[in-house]
Specification:
Blueprint: H1 3-42, E1 44-57, H2 65-70, H3 73-76, E2 79-87, E3 90-96, E4 108-115, E5 118-126, H4 132-136, H5 144-172, H6 182-198
Parallel strand pairs: 3-5
Antiparallel strand pairs: 1-2, 1-4, 2-3, 4-5
Keywords: Membrane, Transmembrane, Transmembrane helix
Length: about 200
């Protein structure tokens, strides 16, 4: 078999694999954005005291048994941003959005948008919020991973703000059918793709 025929076969197989991965990723991205919109619509404002926050594996986070049963086993070992909060007289563990995890102050009171046991966004912070730069005394340069996480957080904040605006406008104008232009749909797709690519 000549070498150029082997190269053609390898290229065709690689293209087929890339196409399948693109399709699967596109479907997962649409599913994720639909779930996020549902969470934003169901979110309620809540005052809470943040006791502690950590990145913990799901099995060690102390989440309700029902959540653990519904989660696939392969995701139970993944680390999640967990916040130990006091809501009224009750102390519980909640899952944070990755974009706002760094904003949450420990031992500080916040007003947050919560959907179930998931903290979507922080509206206002009461108490002292110390920046990491002030704690260490000098600015950290950061490695590649921290820079990518910062970029992801910025993109996630932008997407969250847009979804909140969209949910508010849907609530105000339920009678009017809203049509989006092709340009708006294309921009939303690009933003969502950037966010999912950086994860």
């Amino acid at each position: 078999m000549p070498w150029w025929l082997i190269m053609i076969i390898v290229i065709v197989v690689a293209l087929a694999i890339m196409f399948v991965l693109y399709r699967v990723g596109d479907k997962l991205q649409k599913k994720q954005s639909a779930q996020r919109e549902q969470m934003v619509e169901a979110a309620q404002p809540m005052n809470m005291l943040i006791i502690d926050k950590k990145m913990l594996p799901m099995k060690d986070a102390g989440l309700p048994k029902m959540v653990m049963e519904q989660t696939p086993k392969r995701y139970q070992k993944a680390k999640l941003p967990i916040a130990k909060v006091k809501v009224g007289p009750q102390i519980m563990n909640m899952i944070c959005d990755d974009a706002i995890f760094d904003e949450l102050p420990t031992r500080g009171e916040v007003k947050a948008m919560v959907s179930g046991i998931y903290i979507i966004s922080v509206k206002s912070v009461r108490g002292k919020k110390v920046a990491q730069e002030e704690e260490t005394g000098k600015k950290k340069k950061g490695n590649w991973r921290t820079r990518m996480r910062k970029r992801q957080v910025e993109m996630q904040k932008q997407l969250n703000a847009e979804m909140l605006e969209k949910a508010k406008s849907k609530g105000k104008a339920k009678d009017k059918p809203v049509e989006k232009s092709k340009e708006e749909l294309r921009r939303e797709k690009e933003r969502a793709k950037k966010i999912s690519d950086k994860m």
